[in-house]
């Protein structure tokens, strides 16, 4: 085999096995997004989030998550957290708002967003973060698994850490519409078809048990929905009569078939546009 052929083979193997990612300058930003192919942490200068005091109707979850995050940022023990429940009720908004509040209080904490499809690479990310001086909040939004999805096994590297253990400077917050991260019919199917149904179900359901904090989010009442909207209007200086606001907001929710923080924000966005107010 000639030298040119050997060089081409070597180059092909290098492409298949790229070099390990280098740690970025963590002082460049407070937020990062993890990407693969190649592995890298991209800094995010402007995080899309709302202020913590604008999140209405989730007081208990807000206080619990903030306390846990402040403990972690201060170098004390803290739990991984699973925020589960109704769509549009502020689960991901709360995680980002709590991070901002922690920074506002003078603590140092980096947030790193990880996409669900990139979970198989989580071990490489932990290796990158393990020796850093900073503390990291890993954030996985809208986490769930289908019947043929083995990504949940990769998640255990963060929750349990394997032989090395989860790095002391890393904690994981995840959001999901499902309490057990997997659809009920999938769990029932495992129970009905497995040779040892108890063990098959336990392996998947126990994934949720590895989160020390479970914070539930439930559909809001009409009063809470209107209170959310009122908070946004005050914060952004949007004026409208109470009668008109109530009629429009209730009609807006009725046309969407639900009430939630997301629906409230969508109405406020529409109203701000009609009132020529920048938000």
* CATH superfamily membership of the largest domain: P-loop containing nucleotide triphosphate hydrolases
What is the mean pLDDT? 84
Q: Within the CATH hierarchy, at the fold level, what is the topology of the largest domain?
A: Rossmann fold
* Unreliable sequence segments: none
Tell me the Rg in angstroms: 22 Å
List strands and helices in order, with pairings.
Elements lengths: L2 H14 L14 E5 L4 E5 L14 H15 L7 E5 L5 H14 L5 E4 L8 H9 L5 E5 L10 H9 L10 E7 L7 H10 L3 H13 L3 E5 L4 H15 L5 H15 L4 H14 L5
Parallel strand pairs: 1-4, 3-6, 3-7, 4-5, 5-6
Antiparallel strand pairs: 1-2
Structure description:
The protein is α/β, with parallel strands linked by helices. The protein folds into 2 domains: 26-217, Rossmann fold; 222-274. Helix content is 46%, strand content 13%. It has helices spanning 3-16, 59-73, 91-104, 122-130, 151-159, 184-193, 197-209, 222-236, 242-256, 261-274; strands at 31-35, 40-44, 81-85, 110-113, 136-140, 170-176, 213-217. The chain has a 7-stranded mixed β-sheet. Helix 4 (122-130) links the parallel strand 4 (110-113) and strand 5 (136-140). Helix 2 (59-73) packs across helix 3 and helix 6 packs antiparallel against helix 7. The protein is elongated, with a radius of gyration of 22 Å. The chain starts with a helix and ends in a 5-residue tail after the last helix. The model has no long low-confidence stretch (mean pLDDT 84).
């Amino acid at each position: 085999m000639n030298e040119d052929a050997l060089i081409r083979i070597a180059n092909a193997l290098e492409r298949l096995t790229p070099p390990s990612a280098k740690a970025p300058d963590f002082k460049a930003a407070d937020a990062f997004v993890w990407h693969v192919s190649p592995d890298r942490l991209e800094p995010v200068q402007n995080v899309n989030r709302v202020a913590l005091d604008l999140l209405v109707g989730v007081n208990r979850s807000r206080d619990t998550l903030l306390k846990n995050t402040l403990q972690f940022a201060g170098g004390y023990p803290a739990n991984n957290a699973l925020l589960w429940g109704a769509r549009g009720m502020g689960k991901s908004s709360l995680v980002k708002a709590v991070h901002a509040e922690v920074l506002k209080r003078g603590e140092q904490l980096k947030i790193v967003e990880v996409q669900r499809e990139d979970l198989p690479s989580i071990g490489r990310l932990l290796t990158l973060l393990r020796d850093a001086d900073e503390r990291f909040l890993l954030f996985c939004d809208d986490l769930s698994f289908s019947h043929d999805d083995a990504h949940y096994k990769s998640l255990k590297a963060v929750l349990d850490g394997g032989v090395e253990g989860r790095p002391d400077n890393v904690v994981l917050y995840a959001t999901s519409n499902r309490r057990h991260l997997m659809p009920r019919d999938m769990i029932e199917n495992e129970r009905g078809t497995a040779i040892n149904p108890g063990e098959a179900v336990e392996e998947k359901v126990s994934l949720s048990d590895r989160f020390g904090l479970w914070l539930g989010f439930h559909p809001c009442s009409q009063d809470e929905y209107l209170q959310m909207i009122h908070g946004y209007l005050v914060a952004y200086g949007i004026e409208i009569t109470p009668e008109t606001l109530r009629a429009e907001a209730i009609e807006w929710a009725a046309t969407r078939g639900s009430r939630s923080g997301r629906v409230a924000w969508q109405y406020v966005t529409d109203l701000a546009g009609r009132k020529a107010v920048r938000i």
